[in-house]
Write a structure and sequence with these properties.
heterotrimer; A mainly alpha (269); B mainly alpha (290); C alpha+beta (352); A: 269 residues; MetI-like fold; 73% helix; globular; B: MetI-like fold; 3 strands; binds magnesium ion
């Protein structure tokens, strides 16, 4: 017995088509054997995937993106752990304001952040550098890392740490042997979500990236601004494929719903 | 669960200290500098002059070019928000009524794109409708349904459709979260009392998910108003919105102070609208929010 | 010399006192229960001894040393938490070994002591299991073993059995008592289950709203409750209003149409509590109260009566000795010995 009527299912089918069509068309067109944009009809070809290798701009940009995402999300997670413990464990004046500040990069438009960083980094001599990129990405992925670390810290039974203390563990031993292992799933998913956010970021990065530090989405964006050809389609298809793999893995270990909604209905972990 | 420990002096500040310093240094200071920048003077040859004048602000307020551009940004954001609400909310409801494993699969399919690069997703729309080579246009032309390709690239319609697609998952997510808080028995109770399916939807479900729709609407509106990549790709250099205009001022014209003023105005307008809407939503739906 | 001394121990949250000047002396090897209704401050008291809650005032001495000056991790106390608080990412053996590791006990001795202690709680076979894969009773035993293995100076148990079903709880009660006798560790148990407290402890501390109502041996507290609250909390009791007056130089309490000589000093309006099993039916006597049987319930080894009297409904429990018992609707007279009455000031409630 389906609880949705035929009308609802028809709507649902159209909706899913709407969501998937633009993504699928990228993946399909990427396999065209022709020299122009077209849907492969009689045969598929990998020529445009092979062509990526001849464009070092894309390869370099890809590695820039990977290192940038890995570094900034790792550092963001590092900063977020003590901050999350402070917010989860202590009731102090300014706690709400502090949380709001830490989550503010979600609300401030990335164009504004891009402009602010461009001005700031130019002034202090970090304009166009990789360090500047990392700093700015730490800030924009921080809310994602914080949210996940926070929810695992809040969900943890305080008595477990008390048990460790009563057994003679020092503060550091409690953290390393008990707290850290228990919030590790939240930490890992926080890192992964932060990684994707950093890897996909384009609006802010387009302002502050220099030719040598351009990331993959920015490179794609600038390329598309000039012209759209099958090459950028195959690059996009690769990006989509990487994201989908990431997504499925994340869904398996943590649960996508829990990742995005907060606490999910499934038990996850 | 143990209650939150009462503040023990400086411990929480020591823990949050590193992140706080980072945020003060790399968020608050640059933002303040941007606000300051919007009051600076600029000239083709003299560059930025660190004085405090209202020139840029006056230009934005007086010049109809900026009025038109901000009006377009507002129009696009409102339309995108409406489309997202009208399509996303019913979809979340239908999704919630599905059975596992379909529920989980389609949730992944609909929310997953949230994590896929915006550039790649917008490229998809360009491939579907871009000129005569656009997949859909080409098919329709060959079938003889249309005579000329549907106008999509460089049109507001195109931007609205592509942005609705990009931001739709946020609306579904928000309504979905609201639906999870709903007691499924309430619907059954209403049906048992003799209400028709439509009445149940209108009188029982809708009022309870309305906060979800509204908070999703606020998110979608804010992101639509500050969207950059999608309007830049679909709208091209001709059809500008606030974010692409600021980009142009910064990286093409190099008039940073004017670009900063546009950005600051965007930020302030968004904050005012978001805070105002939040107030309204909270007052109106205070009882449902607890 | 006394082993553990709590003196004037007080904890305030805002202006509400969770624990209000609590005095308690515990001897070495003793098993003491903190008993009281939810929210009376039992956990707070335990947490102050453990060091996780800082007292507002008062002192705690262990073996003559000021315990409050010692860090929680250095106090050497074994704690069993209500939620067990096992380390979910460690096996049973690793959980138990943790405390020894922290003390720097060498590996060989460590594994020896771990297996000894696991054997003591009957879990030798499950050493390599993770807590998630254990039943509530088994987790409970791991928690106990983890607390005992460090040879704690005091064992603190916070409602350790409240998550178990009734049958398992009884089994664990017996086992807990046996283990405590074997190792001889001074133990403080927090519970709101009066049967558990009476079954396990050498002494009971009955608490109410942050204050101590009575400290005594289980039998003594039951038979000679210090207040109507204690009488009501430890087993069932009847609470009756009474008026005290002086007759021929002796205090006499009038309850309904009957009057009793008072064992204790009192005057004016008071509340008297009498346990149901101390009340007997009688044909005619001075010390008796008239009533009518409203309900009579047969419960195998005893009869349970509800009697309508001038002082309200009175519960009476009579042994089933095979005799004829009054039927429903019968007019009866109730009597009890003067020494079975507990007298408290009027208005103090100790309802069942
Ligand atoms: N961190 C806290 N902040 C404020 N009030 C508290 C805190 N901890 C406990 N209290 C209050 O102190 C009182 C005693 O609490 P405590 O946990 O000691 O009760 P308890 O006797 O253990 O009850 P239970 O049987 O329900 O566990 C309660 O009224 C409680 O609300
Ligand atoms: Mg308690």
């Amino acid at each position: 017995m389906s609880r949705n009527g035929p009308l609802a299912l028809a709507f649902h089918t159209l909706f899913v088509t709407f969501i998937l069509a633009p993504i699928l068309v990228v993946c399909v067109v990427a396999f065209t054997p022709e020299g122009y944009l077209s849907v492969p009809t009689d045969r598929v070809s990998l020529r445009w995937f092979r062509a990526i290798a001849d464009y070092p701009e894309f390869i370099d940009a890809f590695w820039n993106s990977v290192w940038l995402a890995a570094a900034s999300s790792a550092i963001a997670v590092g900063f977020s752990v003590p901050a999350a413990l402070a917010i989860a464990r202590y009731d102090f004046t300014g706690r709400e304001a502090l949380t709001a500040l830490f989550l503010s990069p979600l609300m401030v438009p990335h164009v504004v952040l891009g402009i602010a960083f461009l001005r700031f980094f130019t002034q202090i001599g970090l304009g166009g550098t990789f360090v500047g990129l990392v700093l700015s990405h730490i800030v924009i992925v921080f809310p994602f890392a914080l949210r996940l670390v926070l929810s695992s810290a809040v969900g943890m039974d305080r008595a477990i740490e008390h048990a460790a203390i009563s057994l003679g563990a020092s503060d550091f031993a409690v953290f390393r042997r008990v707290t850290l292992p228990l919030i590790l799933p939240g930490l890992a998913s926080g890192w992964a979500l932060a990684f994707i956010q950093s890897f996909d970021e384009v609006t802010m990065t387009v302002f502050i990236a220099a030719p040598g530090t351009v990331t993959l989405p920015v490179r794609m964006f600038l390329y598309i601004q000039d012209n759209i050809d099958p090459l950028v389609t195959s690059v996009s298809a690769c990006v989509i494929a990487i994201t989908v793999v990431f997504l499925v893995v994340l869904d398996r270990i943590y649960g996508l719903e829990r990742l995005l909604v907060g606490r999910g209905s499934g038990d996850g972990a | 669960m143990t209650a939150v420990a009462v503040s023990r002096g400086w411990t929480p500040w020591l823990l949050a200290g590193p992140a706080l310093l980072l945020f003060v240094g790399i968020v608050l200071v640059p933002l303040a500098m941007t606000v300051l920048l919007s009051f600076h003077d600029w000239g083709q040859y003299k560059g930025i002059e660190p004085v405090l004048i209202l020139k840029n602000w006056r230009e934005i307020i007086d010049d109809s070019y900026f009025h038109e551009m901000f009006a377009r940004t507002l129009r696009i954001s409102v339309l995108v928000t409406l489309i997202a609400a009208l399509l996303g909310a019913p979809e979340a409801y239908i999704l919630n009524r599905m059975k596992n494993p379909w529920k989980g699969i389609f949730l992944l399919v609909i929310l997953g794109p949230l994590l896929i690069s915006v550039v790649a997703r917008t490229l998809g729309w360009a491939l579907l409708f871009g000129g005569e080579t656009g997949v859909v246009n080409k098919a329709l032309l060959e079938l003889g349904v249309i005579e000329a390709p549907l106008p999509f690239m460089f049109t507001e319609t195109g931007i609205v459709v592509a942005l609705s697609h990009v931001l739709m998952p946020f609306m579904v997510l928000s309504v979905w979260a609201a639906l999870q808080r709903l007691d499924p028995q309430v619907e059954n109770a209403a049906t048992a009392l003799g209400a028709s399916h439509f009445t149940v939807l209108r009188r029982i479900v809708l009022p309870q998910v309305m906060p979800g729709v509204l908070s999703g609407g606020i998110i979608v509106f804010a992101l639509a108003a500050s969207a950059f990549a999608t309007p830049a790709i679909i709208g091209g250099r001709r059809l500008k919105v606030a974010a692409t205009l600021a980009y142009d001022e910064f990286l093409n014209t190099l008039n940073w102070p004017l670009g900063a003023a546009v950005a600051v105005l965007l930020l302030v307008a968004l904050i005012v609208i978001i805070v105002g809407c939040n107030r309204l939503v909270e007052r109106r739906y205070a009882q449902v929010f607890q | 010399m006394s082993f553990l001394v709590l003196e004037g121990l007080t904890k305030r949250f805002g202006d509400q006192a969770a624990v209000d000047s609590l005095d308690l002396v515990v001897e070495q090897g003793e098993f003491v229960s903190l008993l009281g209704p939810s929210g009376c401050g039992k956990t707070t008291t335990l947490q102050m001894i453990a060091g996780f809650v800082e007292p507002t005032s008062g002192s705690i001495l262990l073996d003559g040393r000021d315990l409050l000056a010692i860090k929680p991790s250095q106090r050497g106390l074994g704690i069993v938490f209500q939620s067990y608080a096992l380390f979910p990412h460690m096996t049973a053996a690793e959980n138990v070994a943790f405390g020894l590791e922290m003390q720097g006990v060498p590996r060989a001795e460590r594994s020896q002591r771990v297996s000894e202690t696991l054997a003591l709680v009957g879990l030798a076979a499950l050493a390599d299991r993770y807590p998630r894969r254990m039943s509530g009773g088994q987790q409970q035993r791991v928690a106990l073993a983890r607390a005992l293995v460090i040879r704690p100076r005091i064992l603190l148990l916070d409602e350790p059995l409240s998550n178990l079903d009734a049958k398992l709880r009884e089994e664990m009660q017996i086992e807990l008592r046996q283990i405590q006798r074997t190792v001889g560790t001074t133990t403080i148990l927090v519970t709101h289950d009066q049967a558990e407290a009476m079954a396990l402890s050498d002494r009971i501390v009955v608490m109410n709203k942050g204050r101590v109502e009575q400290i005594g041996r289980p039998h003594e507290a039951y038979e000679k409750p210090a207040s109507a609250f204690v009488a009501g909390f430890l087993g069932k009791t009847n609470v009756l209003p009474a008026a005290v007056e002086q007759r021929n130089g002796a205090a006499v309490a009038s309850i309904g149409d009957g009057s009793w000589p008072l064992p204790a000093e009192a005057s004016g309006r008071v509340t008297v509590s009498v346990r149901p099993e101390k009340i007997a039916f009688i044909d005619q006597a001075d010390c008796s109260l008239a009533g009518t049987v409203r309900t009579r319930i047969f419960q195998g080894n005893h009869w349970l009566y509800q009697i309508d009297t001038a002082c309200g409904l009175v519960t009476v429990i009579r042994q089933n000795a095979g005799e004829m018992m009054p039927a429903e609707g019968a007019a009866v007279r109730l009597t009890w010995r003067p020494q079975d009455m507990t007298v408290s000031p009027a208005g103090q409630d100790g309802r069942i």
